[in-house]
């Protein structure tokens, strides 16, 4: 398991694809892991060097005590790129990973070749806060089954749920491996996030993606981001739910490949 010491913690990472290729960074959603990017890794690694990693508090990286923030995650990612001698990369994330990516693009603009934000938000309204508070309640009770029950209907579309019962059963089991205290620190980081007034500082070419049937971080958030990020492009993926990289991988991968290629050094 490759790990790098960054800002006093060990961060787990994986590299896939040609060593000499441009680097693409994929940042996880809050309940995702590097394994959640399997469809994207297979598609992107033919052309790009794909960097997967766990943020502090996630899975195979360290879970230090104390508060987390998106700015801290951004600094960790910068430190990881330093450790791997990567000066600039295409930066992409989904959900929590989108928020990390926005914070990174604002703090380290010179390191971002292009930016893809999928199913993310730049601020939290009352409904999203209430939805997340049910997650926090389940985590505080250290009840993995309850946490699964209150999260999966918001993470997936009804069509996907009906067709993927075995995958959902496997996901339920993974919830029993969660570090609930670290998860709560991640949720605190998210619930304190408000970056809309700073989005105009993003200078990288940006693609904003949202799934048509995202019940958690709906289209209005993406439209807000597009209105504030200079020259941002906007795509709505039909039918998919919040975990659109799993539900609609072919469309999602095509969008990533096309956008990264358009903004690559060779383009």
Total individual domains: 1
- Which outline best applies? globular
Alpha-carbon distance between the termini? 34 Å
Instruction: Provide the residue-averaged pLDDT.
Output: 97
What would you report as the Rg, rounded to the nearest angstrom? 17 Å
Secondary structure layout:
Blueprint: E1 3-6, E2 9-16, E3 23-27, H1 38-44, E4 49-53, H2 70-83, E5 89-94, H3 96-107, E6 112-118, H4 126-140, H5 144-155, H6 158-163, H7 165-175, H8 180-191, E7 206-211, H9 219-228, E8 233-237, H10 244-247, H11 249-262
Parallel strand pairs: 3-4, 3-5, 5-6, 6-7, 7-8
Antiparallel strand pairs: 1-2, 2-4
Helix pairs in contact: 1-11, 2-3, 4-5, 4-8, 5-7
Essential attributes:
Rossmann fold; 11 helices; 267 residues; 8 strands; alpha/beta; 17% strand
How would you explain this protein's 3D organization?
By secondary structure, the protein is of the alpha/beta class. The protein has one domain: Alpha/Beta hydrolase fold, catalytic domain (Rossmann fold, 3-Layer(aba) Sandwich), CATH 3.40.50.1820. The chain is 44% helix and 17% strand. The chain is built from eleven helices and eight strands. It has an eight-stranded mixed β-sheet with strand order 1-2-4-3-5-6-7-8, sandwiched between helices. A hairpin with a 2-residue loop joins β1 and β2. α2 packs across α3. The radius of gyration is 17 Å and the shape is globular. The two termini are 34 Å apart. 45% of the residues are buried. The model has no long low-confidence stretch (mean pLDDT 97).
């Amino acid at each position: 398991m490759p790990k790098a010491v960054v800002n006093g913690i060990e961060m787990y990472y994986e590299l896939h694809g040609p060593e000499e290729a441009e680097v693409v960074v994929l940042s996880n959603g809050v309940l995702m892991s590097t394994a959640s990017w399997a469809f994207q890794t297979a598609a992107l690694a033919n052309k790009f060097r794909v960097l997967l990693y766990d943020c502090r508090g996630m899975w195979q990286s360290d879970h230090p005590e104390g508060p987390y923030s998106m700015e801290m995650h951004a600094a960790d990612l910068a430190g990881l790129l330093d450790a791997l001698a990567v000066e600039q990369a295409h930066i992409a994330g989904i959900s929590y990973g989108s928020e990390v990516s926005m914070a990174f693009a604002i703090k380290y603009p010179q390191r971002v070749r292009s930016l893809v934000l999928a199913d993310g938000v730049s601020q939290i309204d009352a409904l999203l806060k209430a939805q997340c508070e049910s997650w926090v309640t389940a985590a505080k009770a250290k009840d993995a089954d309850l946490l699964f029950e209150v999260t999966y209907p918001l993470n997936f579309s009804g069509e996907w749920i009906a067709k993927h019962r075995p995958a959902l059963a496997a996901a339920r089991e993974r919830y029993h491996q969660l570090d609930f205290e670290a998860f709560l620190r991640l949720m605190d980081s998210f619930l304190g996030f408000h970056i809309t007034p700073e989005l105009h500082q993003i200078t990288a070419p940006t693609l904003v993606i949202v799934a048509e049937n995202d019940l958690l971080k709906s289209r209005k958030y993406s439209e807000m981001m597009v209105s504030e990020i200079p020259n941002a492009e906007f795509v709505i993926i039909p039918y998919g739910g919040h975990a659109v990289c799993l539900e609609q991988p072919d469309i999602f991968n095509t969008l990533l490949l096309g956008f990264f290629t358009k903004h690559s050094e060779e383009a």
